[in-house]
Fold each of these.
Amino acid sequence: MKITEDEVLHVAALARIRLDDGEVRGLRSQLDKILGYMDILAAVDTAGVNPTHHPLPLVNAMRDDREQGCQELADVLRNAPQHEDGYIAVPRVIGQG
Amino acid sequence: MLETARQYRRYEKSPVEETRAFLEKIRSEPFNAFVTIDEAGALRDARAAEELLKSPEPGALAGIPVAVKDNICTRGLRTTCASKILSDFVPTFDATVVKRLKEQGAVILGKTNLDEFAMGSTTTSSIAGPTRNPRDPSRTPGGSSGGSGAAVAAGLCAGALGSDTGGSIRMPASFCGITGLKPTYGSVSRYGLVAFASSLDQIGPMAPTARDAAVLFDAIKGHDPLDSTSVPRDYGPTELDGIDLKGLRIGVPEEFFGEGLNPEVKAAVRSGIETLEDMGGRVVQVGLPHIGYGVAVYYIVATAEASSNLARYDGVRYGLRAQDVHELSDMYARTRATGFGLEVKRRIMLGTYALSAGYYDAYYRKASQVRTLIAQDFRRAFSRCDIIAGPTTPVTAFRLDEMVDDPLSLYLLDIYTIPANLAGLPALSIPCGFDSLGLPVGMQLMAPHFREDLLLGAGISFQDRTDYHQEGP
């Protein structure tokens, strides 16, 4: 077995996704099968091979540090689930209300 | 598309009439190709195009009605990614590709359906419901740009934009019998494309013909300072008359014709390659020894990048927010539990796992190293040939009710399309025949970086000689 239900719960916590019991069971068996398939990579000799994280040899894209326009605050706030006084509002971060 | 442009200039047709006719068709279309129809916006664009057409050189796209995949941002027009988490999201800006289409006078009819966050190959995991294949409505159009594929195949637009992370333009192009181009990584701006896997994603054109795809590609390509992975270089216009195939070396990798390839697809693609030979092309054998690892590499790299990109959907700044929560981390976890569908959760989980402590080296690092070997395979192959030809997909469009509930078997459908994304190469799918049920088969052509001219040129010449692309549903 590549992955246990406890590991599924641990990964779900890292990914900030709450799962119900049925999802935990389903994902465990699906991820197990997918990760099992990934084992084919173990047979490839990659000694001394550099990893590729980007398909082209691009370096940093620089631009002049110049003032330019930005989006309208009212437009941006229209997509916010909750806002107050021009700020996006969220539930309490620490402690009890 | 080019014929319509000529008719506009001769005043035989007007953009407003043409747009009304397309909107009328879309309103009653049975394929569920669209998530959102923008009637008011389209007519506004069409009226603006009528003015543009009075100028001396209005450009080929003036007044041409097109559709845009619903993971590409359109200012003031809802962009959902087919996800509950973005079901009410209205972008405050246009993606660079949309801005360029509008500047050239194109009419945007609406937003097309996709698998949620472009993660899938069937266009079924959408809040708007599944899209159906105009060739046979009991079948999938492929995915994830299945809405764009179906809209083009059914004549609901003159052309469309899709996005391709592991085959999402080419697979629906193949299943729907149209032409689809995944451009070189970095040749089309990703600014305003909702990110899935940033080192793989590219926006590209889907159209009835390679010539139309070339017109759309020319309109959207080019450097964009707003996308730091966009490549600054001279992007000349595509030669719309096609190219002379005499002496063109066509690499045919045996790895693309092995186990798992449907025999009817194989026969159609072989006959497509023979046609290229009859036109003067010279077939050479090339080897891509690491290509068999592509699916494993892709589903580690793409999900790892997705797990990071989709971290932004937390219910804070936009999109869905879970209600009745009293603490921030609970809000994140419940928003994401409610807002994401099962396939998206599965991929975020897989990517998070592959990046997590203790597994990073075995999965993410290993996959990134094998990605290097796959890119090297292509470099070696392209030292012996000019383009590579093979199938786009191992099968033709399958029935929606035959879909198996097994993610891995669906992932394996991407086996021929994934390598181009991993190596950043351009790849084109063009119709090259039919199976015994009359369903279209796609042939995939690949070229070195920035050699779309070879792909589109060969595609145009191939279509001038064949009529597979003209046999409508």
Amino acid sequence: MENVTTKGFLGKVQYDSVRILPKCLDYPMSVSPADVTQVARLARLKIPEDALSDVTDRFSRILDMVDELQQVDTQGIEPMSNPHDMVQRLRADQVTEPDQRAALQSVSPAVEQGYFLVPRVID
Amino acid sequence: MNHSDLSYASAKKLSTMLKQGDVSALELTSHFLDRIRQLDGPLNSLITVSEEHAITAAKAADKALSDGTATPLTGIPLLHKDIFCTKGIKTTCASHMLDNFVPPYDATVVSRLNAAGTVTLGKTNMDEFAMGSSNETSFYGAVANPWDTDRVPGGSSGGSAAAIAAGFAPLSTGTDTGGSIRQPAALCGITGLKPTYGRVSRRGIIAFASSLDQAGPMTRSVEDAALMLNAMCGIDDGDSTSADIAVPDFTTLLEQDIAGLRIGLPKEYFSNDLDPQVSAQIHAALAELEKEGAKLVDIELPHTHQGIATYYVIAPAEASANLSRYDGVRFGHRCDDPKDLMDLYERSRSEGFGDEVQRRILVGTYALSAGFYDAYFKKAQQVRRIIANDFQRAFEQVDIIAGPAAPSVAFKKGEKAADPLAMYMEDVYTLSVNLAGLPGMSVPAGMIDGLPIGLQLIGRSFDEQTLLNAGHRFQQRTDWHLNTPTLAGAIS
């Protein structure tokens, strides 16, 4: 099995080329300022230049802390996303909500004729 | 009856007084509004006082009392954590992002309590978006602990806990994602219950981590918590994770004998991380329960420490998804003069969210991103099941589990604010309970150098009744819950 290294994003993580799973020993134990900037971009946040080094440091320490998870053997354990393993409750596909557009848009920052206003997206 | 008696009277007692006509709902409301105005300055426990709404509701309550349509909660003054949407009353989640947000609807919990006749006096301060354990991350400033105003009240429901301890109302709502009801309840010397996941509807509660969040009562006694919980619970079409399970009258079994009740003591909860003085007080509290006939059993919850890592992957991951709705378009803060859509998103969010919220969004986004999902998020969800299984195994041997609610008494403001990891350790005894979805409660169980500590009781899924029963019996034997702080400016 050949190992490949991803490019750019979030530094060096080695992947098993067949199963596309990161290998435990190769986790990045900390992140770089460039990684943080990239994650911030995905999260639609802007980190000021002068705060970047502090943010990166704290981010790395949190990742080091959560790395404790890797000590737990989870082979064959089903992930738990709901404490009661509930499944989504469904209802009949019927209109039950009245039109509340005016009430809901009353707290919007910029509205015109029932539409939300955003900066021009198509030139 | 003089005013200080009213301030610290239980909801149950006030209910009797209202029914007998000893006091009117309007008089009660005015009394508490005056007290808030007079004493909240140095505490900063409220973000909004909703005087007009309160007076209207109090008048309606007085009418219901004279009509004979009153419930046990009619006319009882109450505070809501500022995470519950209240129609027509500003709801900020203690964030600049929602500084201008007036919800067009009520949270289900709010409408249920309104229907029961409670009178909303205002909205309590909290950590921003409920992310914090000290109430220092609020956009509206830190909350002070009424027992020592140099210290934190805990968080995130720190304003609710401080307000109840200060006698600003007998009842408050709180929410608990990793300890946010129980830890501040412990640090302020009040009673706080986090119900089983699904017991209380989350509709209209501003979402933090949807698989962990639960709302519950914050009161001065277990009896009042039971009374309030009765009005909060039940299935709701507006929350598909609310549980379709019968809701008992939580007040009926309070007095039941607890002889033979098996109480598990996890050895991990009494390790070296626990302040020895807190440990001694918890053991003294447990001895009181033993005198009631309960049996103490040593148990193990072997993955307690890994709970922290599990929680700090799952909660930020869910938060990063939930908080993606704040985009500067539909509601909430919008930056000035955005040059394009990306600029609108990035600046609105960076201006609107504080440091801790941004930090958790970053960690959550990272944990969910391509290439890291399996290593962090899926792994954490697997460990979550292992933790839930640990509890299940323990509950084969015992009926409830007991331990401290927090590792120490209230700490000084600023002491942990600079170090997120030190702050995260505050919730080591509480957050596993959210991961497993179980009910948990903190009751006042001692004082160390004038500061309260809390005994945490953890129950089986949907078995709040046994917790309330044990907690009430404890409060029948002890008077820690009757202690009140001396407030600056109070007329003695």
Amino acid sequence: MECIPSQSWLQKITSEDKVLLINPPIQEVRYAWIRWNQPTDLLILSSKLKNEAGCKVELLDFMLPTESGRVPMRDLAKAKEVRTKNIKTTYKARTYGLPLEEATQQLTSILPNWTPTHIVITTMTTYWFETLRPVISYMKTICPSAQVSIMGAYPVYETDHAMRMNADYLITDYFDTAEYCPDFEVYSGEITKFLHNGRTLLFGGLRLSDNSANAIEQIKSLRRQNIRDFVFFESNIFREDCKPLLEMLTALEKEKLSINLHGLCGLEIRNATEGIYTKMLQAGYRSFFLEYDLDNTELNKDSYRRAYLELVKHNSGRISSGNLAGFIMIGTAEDELERLFRHTLNLLEMCGSIIPKPFTPTINSEKYIEVKQKHGLDKLTPHVFPLAVDNGITREEYMEFYQHTSFLNEKRLGQSFDFFDNHYCSVALKRSLGKKGMMI
Amino acid sequence: MTISRNKLAILINPPIYDTQYWARWSMPHGLLKIATWLRYEGYDLKLYDCLNPYGEGSGIPERVADFESYDAVRKQKKSVVVLASTEEREEQMSYKLKPNEKWKYIFGLPPHELEDQLTNYKNSIARKKYKSVEFWITSIMTYWWESTRDVIELALRVFPEAKIRLGGIYPTLAPWHAEKKLGIDPLLMKGDKLDLNDEAQMDRHLVIYNEVPAASNLDLATDLYDDKERPPYTILTTSRGCPHICSYCASNVLNDGTKVRTRTFEDVIAEIKDKFRKNTRVFCFYEDNLLMKMQEFKRILKAVLADKSLQGIKIYAPEGIEIGVALSDRKRYLLKMRSDKSILATLSIETVEEQDTSSAIDIYEAFKESKRRTKRTFIKFEEDLTHGAVVIKEQTDDHIVLVVGDDDKVVLRKAIKENGRTDLIYENEEQSSLGLYLVGVPEIVYLMRLAGFEKIYLPLETIKKETNARWNRSWNSNLSRFESLLAALEEVGFDTRKQNINAFVMFGLPGEDLEEIYDTALYASERVGSVIPMLFTPVPSTDVYEQYRPYIEEHRFDLHHLNGKLFPFFPMLRDQMKMKYPEYEIEIADYVRVESFMQRINSKINGQSVNIYADTKVASTFRQTYSEYESFIKEWV
């Protein structure tokens, strides 16, 4: 086993090599929006490998959704247990992704024609490592001559931990991929397609690159494959005063491409400039999921007002129910139930939908290290609320909070329930709820 | 038995026109019994169950293994109905509804497809040259009568010489309507007068009301379904009738009175075993009042439990059980472990009368003698569910001493309560090292759980006493009894937050207040976790219907306008509410919202339903925050 920087690893790859990229299955307590997962880092690495090493690249994406957007899921016998201050909570754990046996069966049948020399497994986070060991064992059994490498957040930040996974190489930093775009074509290759039983992409996950022309070319290419839905996977799509986004939207408008854009992540609304939402709507944005924006501990009224005016009040087209939502971060050290509910109601009133987003500490922060030492690396998944109990809210209470938000969010015939108007049915509900004891 | 020859009966369960439809348990069991009877009478049979969710044409895209997944059939938009009115019109599919409108759909096989299938069938049987063709059509809800009319029309278009026999709930409750509105000139007749050999009858179209006694206790002819399309469940009817006369319920009309009749035990068990052997695992009791013949029902359950060949059976009773009757059953005492709620053993108190040794005397004397006769009550150890960890150490008629897990001694003693009933008490509970406790539950709920009942349905209707009194349901109005039964259900293992227990909540009635509906729905949600809204429909032939007849006539409502989902009483409700709350404009959209609120309140996460009325910190914080909430966007609007 060797820990190796990305550049040195890359030098080992030659044009003779055959590289199999793997997006592994995941063990988790929950996995929301699974249809929108895509291994962008692997797709970009594919571009880089093809361009710089000239090697052959194929992909085994365990998480590739079916046409209906589903990914296989199995309950695990082993549950996740977290204990804080002597309160034990047990979570049902599941494995998401194509079953290993099924995937290896497909892989085994192509080995006579195509045997990988390198296998690269990516990791999205530091705490999704539990499936790596079985995946690597399987790969080493069926492709004994291949060198297995792990890339991504796990070997970069948890190198020591990753040494236990029996890989040949741990890539200890990120590849320089600034110049590259995701290689969506890889899904159309004969071997990759066979590995996925003929399934292919449902949407294009893009980056807001400096050169919007590249992204436009990619969109055009995916449109030819009948892919209509696109997402920009960025931590902040409004960065640099929205310049990259505006360039992209202008280019899209010029091309008159008929596409659906989905604002699923990175809508950091405090950086949104005047008129940007209107532009997004014009360019084909169908959904807007607004990141949680606080001014100290309260919602940042300015940023939410801008979003509300452009997306609701002045938008005659109306966004369909459920496609305008506000994230609310839960599970932080500062959580207070009253404030969480108030913000939930605020966002519900404004957007019609809310999405609780469980919090986990930033990698290598003080809290991250504390949780890792106290509970173990796998308990850093936000879905077990690593900071619960210590912040005065138990894990069971977070579950109950989830149930409440689910009730508030529920759509019937495509409509949310209006809890906020002054109709008698809202007033009567308030009265009826008021008959039961309030905060205890 | 006279065997008629060369007769064909085409049996049809028509599609329906409605705004919503839940297809679970839609099997036309009355029609399938009639089919068995007609087969005995020498008819050839053909079935069209237009509402079968398991049918090829049901619209279910893929075969799913889970029985519970089948609760829908295909639907297509038919028209737009304006709520609380007689207005209905066709619209483009893309039409956007106004707040006071709903889409009316055709659920199930659409009439034009049924007509095509009948035409093909007619061609396929041309060689058989049937002497007569009869359409036996069932019609369930009175407000679904329109599709019955359409099916009759198309049936006669394809087979002009055929005769119609219409039966079911609709013609029984509204024969006067069925006689005039179906486009035929039928002979109206009671089921017990039906004679298949009476040519004068058979030459006419027939509208048959009430039951056909000859078919009442027959098996369901489920073999008429193709193998691939046969529903994996069956409907069991072991009794008919209900002794109560609730002002909104038509049970006594449907059953020709309030007498409760039961099928024989042997007959029911034979049916269960036969169906189970033929691979049916799910059994659904459809009864007017399931528990009214408690002993017979318990005997059936005990037989199911004792029969190892019936292992894996799932039983449902979606019509609900009567709370007071369930509670009146004798107690089964459960010895339980507090830590995991597991049941270790069960006991009961048995009563036996001493032998009758008196010589022949008249009835009155015999009665007096029976009163004099002494009764012996004793503790009966029913079951050890631990396979040996519970041992009887000592037993008399008055007490029993058990040893659990070698060293936990349990002393249970008979005690006479103030009401004279005998109870069993756990004398040394506080000394239990294992944390054991004893709880008495109505034996019936224990047996139901053991026998494989998946869900329990309780008729809560409303928690408001006055409303119950108005419906002649005062016997149901004691909430403490509802609570007692819930506690017993929880003790035997039904989980209130996993939608194992469901409460019917009624609304849309004249005189009600939206707040009262919320009160009931929130109470039900808190206590049982699953609320089933029942929108009030005045049923023809009931007191309530008669009471509101002037209103119904004034608004020119036909039966299909009285469908509760269309809120027929909204104008009356609005006027009543306006008097009470002049400051508010009451709109029909408010009622549509309350209806959707009831569905929302059943939201589940990880198999657990929400409880916004709970006493927990989260629920009470939510209530407080919501009740004090001030608009976030009011300055921007």
Amino acid sequence: MSGVWDALTGLGDVLAQHVILAACAIGLGIAVALPLAVWASRSQAVSRGALGFASLVQTIPALALLALFFPILLSLRAVFGEGLPTLGFLPALLALSLYALLPILRNAVTAQANLDPGVIEAANGVGMSFWQRLRLVEAPLAAPYVMAGIRTAAVWTIGAATLSTTIGQPSLGDPIFAGLQTQNWSLVLAGCIASAGLAIVADALLGTIEAGFRRRDRRLWLGGAIAVAAGVAAAFVSQVDWSRDDGRETIVIGTKQFSEQLILGRLVGEQLEDAGYDVEYREGLGSAVVAQAVANGSIDIYFDYTGTIWANQMKRTDNPGRDAMYEAIVKWEREVQGTRVLGKLGFENAYAFAMREDRARELGIRSIEDLARAAPRLVAGGDPEWFERPEWFAVRDAYGLNFSNERNFSPTFMYNALRSGDADVISAYTSDGRIAADNLVILEDPREALPSYDTLIILSPERANDERLIAALRPLLGSIDVKAMREANFSVDRTDGNKKTPREAARWLAEEVGLE
Amino acid sequence: MAASLAFEGVTKRYDSTRALAGIDLAIEPGSFVALVGASGSGKSTLLKTINRLVEPTEGRVLLDGQDVAASDPTAMRRTTGYVFQRIGLFPHMSVAENIAIGPRLVGEKLGEDRIGELLSLVDLDPAMAGRLPEELSGGQQQRVGVARALAGNPSLLLMDEPFGALDPVTRDALGTRVRDLHEKLDLTTIMVTHDMAEALILADRVLVMDGGRIVADETPQALSRGKGGEVAQELVAVPRHQAEKLKGLEG
């Protein structure tokens, strides 16, 4: 439990960012929902349309809604110019505001629809104008119901805001996602406790305001409102950078959602800090999101793999061989994306089939050819992308693979499935530390159906010719062998007492490969 | 000064139905007019064309010679008393705040004395000023409703089934009170009711409506002598029959 406590005490910064994000999203939700509700009370068509739209939004999973704002904002750059951020705060704010809309709107519309018609007739009869009726009669009578809607919206938004980590906005999702990827359950638990605690506190304070409105008790609602405002203000103040501008340039490093990427991010980050840069991290980004983000300059540096770019972004399904593929990717990144492939880090993180050694021996399997013969009796596990990827189709067709069942797992759980026997063979990654640790064998690929996955450093168009930055990064090229990477990965992924954070692993790796 | 009213060809259509079929009518200052008829006869609609809660499809309504369609409806309503069956006190405002609402809309503050005076006019204890509507009985609430209607010193008082939801004793007492105030404050009063007995007792001119038209326009005395035609006499027959039965019980 002390691990959870330690993790909790380190969450101050993401908690503040979480509060700011949720407060802004709810604020924007209120700012949109209330005028819409007033309009809806005057027009049946608007009422139906607005509530229908808000309900529709609500059916989209929050994770998908957050992800959708990336392409939406990207296309809006045509209107608002290249400065429009497509990752981080803005898309998270917009998606969460849309999510907050429904409960506020529905309660406000219902409250207005349920107002005593006699009261409305009286308001008109005594000669109130539109605004007088709204201010003196409708708003005070609807306030408790609207407040109840805001309360619901706040609890939803605080929960859903944890997902904004996936689009590069720091939140209490950071410890949850990082913990899930590295099997650090203390971190996951700390993130959940903080997020749930925040929701409970917000619910209680907003509930106080609601009760104040209901009982027409000014002291009660004013007290609640001041407490809410103080909490949000404290979060803002904590995020103000009081230090004077130190003239250091800031480099933003983006990483995907697994340990290796987190370690590489920290490794490069520390190198750059030593070289006099300030570094920000956008960790846990989706694979497609991170590639687009570097192309449009939302982040400066990220790491990708030749086979991933080849299949996912270039949509190629052929396999021209390792060197030809690399050359084609460098050219494509330069000409199509405007980005610069600085070079290879030195190790591959390729897809391969892995089995438990005892199981492979028992079935007499050493290569994918052997596997194909036993496949109808075996269950295959893959990460969520694997069974949709061209590599899978290529290797399946090359060897005629036909498993009795194909199951998807998150990368971490994939290895657990192999250990527990829920899967007989998995799509492993060659740099994965668990290959050695779990005593796994990589099956040979005699027909060379699986493509290469060299790890690349890629720079955004703005940084493509930044000589100072490139000079700082150059020592990393070719410096990391797969054995060292495996060991670093395992030190983060292991679940016993010797677990390292990505940053600790990065420091170990730097020393191991002689960078410091 | 009591207001004068005139209706010229006032017609109101809702989609396929015609609620008012070309009403022509003049009302003298200081009259107490009752609009009587069955549900759907158009009496409420006609009343609401005066303070523009209903806009006529055709024709016009003149208040003191001015077309109400040319007036600012909110300004005009603030100087016209309006009392209706659902009462419509604002539940989040005290009795005093309810009464003072009309003047407040134009930035005037109604003094404690004036509120006390208005409460006395409708036979309520001025000490009730601080209470909330939910603490009052139905009859007390409608008295506050009348006080609210009088707060802006109106020359015209419009009442739509004002006593419909009250118990008979309260109804009688408040009706009598309003008739006195009509005299005392020099008002022109239009009252919609479906109760012919109430109309005969309180008004000095009774208009009977049927199917969007005025089918009888008589004094209470003429109606009780059998004038006004079939529809009017059917309505008069009800209280007359009740009165005869009561007489029979006594005898």
